[in-house]
Amino acid sequence: MLYSKKLIKFKKIKHAFFNRKEGFSTGVYKSLNCGLGSNDNIKNINKNLDKVCKKIGCNKNNLILLNQIHSNIVHKVDKIPKKKLKGDSLITNKKGIALAILTADCAPVFIYDPINGLISALHAGWKGAYKNIISTTLRKFRLSGSNLEDLIAVVGPCISKKNYEVKEDFFKKFIGKNKINRKFFNTKNNKIYFSLNDYIKENLLKLGVKNIEIVKKDTYISSNNFFSARRSLKNKLNDYGRNISVIMIK
Question: Is the pTM of this model over 0.90?
C-alpha cells in the first residue's frame, strides 16, 4: 500500500494505492485481488474489498467501482448509484464516498481540489489517455468551480517505459495525433517503448495543472508486488489480478 507524498498532507481526505499484498486470494490472484472482472473466487474478492474499505475507513456500500471501458467517460457522483456506472473517471465533493479504480499496468490517477473540496479517481490506460480522459475529467472540475492551478494530481503505479514495448502502429497512432508525442517513445534494439506516465503528466501540464506527482513504482516488476497484465501474459498465465486505488473525502 502506497501513499502520495502530496496528498498525505491533507487531513480532509484519505487515499491509498494498494498493491497485491495482504489479501485472501490464491494462485495467480495472490493475494489482494480486487478485480470483480477476473475469474477469481468471488468470496475472496469480496473479502479483499472488505479489507480495503476497512483500511480507507468507508462503508462498503459507499465504495464506487466502475465498469471500466478505456473511454473518456466521467461521472460526477452525488449519491451512491443504484447500478454500476460505465466509464473511466469519477468525481465527487461528497464525504464518505470512496472512489475506486482498478488497474494492472494502466495508471490510476487521483486529482484533488483542496479549495473546493473535490476529488477524482480515474483510469488512464493508453486508450483512455489517447481519448482525452484527462481533459474530460478536468472539464468536470472547471464546471464544478475549480481553478485548475489549484489542483493536485497524482499519477499512481503503472508500467514503466522500459517495460512498455509497443508496436509500430501504436507509435504511428500517437504521432498522427500530434508529432510532439514522439518524445514519449524511444527505440532500443529495434523495439519501440512508450512512457505512459510521462504522457499523462504532459496532458495535465498542458491543461494548466502544475502540481503533479508521479509515483515511481513499475507494476511490471514482480518485486514491487503489483498485479501486471503484461507480466502475466509473458508468463503465459490465463488470468491476472487487479490492483485497487481509492480516494475519499472524510
Answer: yes
